[in-house]
Please model this.
Amino acid sequence: MSREQTQQKILDAAESLFAESGFNDTSLRQITSNAEVNLAAVNYHFGSKKALIQAVLQRYLQVVMPRLELQFELLLARQKATRLPEVLAVFVQPLLDLEQVKPKGTTLFLQLLGRGYTDVQGHLRKFISHHYGSVLNKFVLLVQQSCPALDAAEIFWRLHFSLGTVVFTMASSEALFDIAAADYQQESDIESVIRRLLPYLAAGIAAPVNHPFDSMAQATL
Amino acid sequence: MSREQTQQKILDAAESLFAESGFNDTSLRQITSNAEVNLAAVNYHFGSKKALIQAVLQRYLQVVMPRLELQFELLLARQKATRLPEVLAVFVQPLLDLEQVKPKGTTLFLQLLGRGYTDVQGHLRKFISHHYGSVLNKFVLLVQQSCPALDAAEIFWRLHFSLGTVVFTMASSEALFDIAAADYQQESDIESVIRRLLPYLAAGIAAPVNHPFDSMAQATL
DNA sequence: GTACATTTCAAACAAGCGTTTGAAATGGAG
DNA sequence: CTCCATTTCAAACGCTTGTTTGAAATGTAC
Model:
């Protein structure tokens, strides 16, 4: 068996298990068993479990990140500031294109992203901001331009709120799909969830800062 | 040493470590070492690690949940439907009151809640919906009354989006505090984060369903 | 076909985990 | 002080984890 075949079998088995059970709760023995390779193959081909996790994520990041960066650059080159819904809409097509990388690619990637942020605290955050910081910066700049009423700190918090929404929803998307199907008899593919997310995120990020706060203070007295 | 003293030392040590590192990444040896009790004390007093986790959460849930339920019942008894920001504002005071249960209680509880939802998939969700389902149902009812334009499925998704925001923000609140303090020189206590959250959540939950979707479809062409 | 490098494999390693055990210590009640 | 139940303690158990090892198998070039 060629080097590439073995590595790919490992990556394919690993990403499914990682997406379903998380990184910590997936053992190398499960991975190598599903991939039908020897236990030692992971350490031989990737060096360590940590490096395998990064390789799994990199397969998707190196596809989706350049496409996002291109779209962000196009919007930044325009004369007028882009409206927030259009900035967020940039994510849709590059994410859906991951279906062409491999079947279920979009769901897998978003679940892996969710796992990466919730399982091992901070590792993925540092990895992404180190390797793809320029992409993130362009996105933040576009959001700032689209929401001139918000200062930088407010945008920082609201973007992290949004990250939480996405990451948590995707990490537990399978459970949510099941509940939604049972209780509301509705179709639940990843694309429909993404399209449900965008209005929520756009409204949350662009929310007025004062009014709900005042009515809250009133209510708590 | 009395039974209560030992149990409390274990609970105190456990909740700090759980909040900081998560349930899976905190060992009984760390807990009993910090609590200055014998390793076997956890199994003797609580039965198992799983039961300890539930006991840690119960200390806060049994305080906060009845207070929330009372407030929800008061709002449901009113003649007119409550506006969404006021419904969400109900959470503020009961959560802040946890500071009186013990110092840093609010932060600890919310971090534990975040850990519980992200660490072991589904366990906490079932535990809460089983023991406090009536509280949750009253809250959902209030949200539905405040947002008559949204059908039940849309509210289901948006409340889970909001849960993701809260849970993710709180689970990684320490890291976010550090970044915010370094980059924006701003105070970062749990109350200010809660007050930042409310407008975001209120706007997201009550977002219009159509407009952002249309402009997105236009942008992706 | 021999020689060499690459890849696979079964086996073992050291470390950590939650849990259990049985004896020692401690605490009140009679 | 004695008795008995409660609580502590050191030690070990059985299991899983990621990683390493050295020999066997495979592939490749001469």
Observations:
- Chain B touches chain A through 68 residues (CB under 8 Å).
- Residues 1-3, 6, 37-41, 44-45 of chain B lie near DNA strand D (CB under 10 Å from a C1').
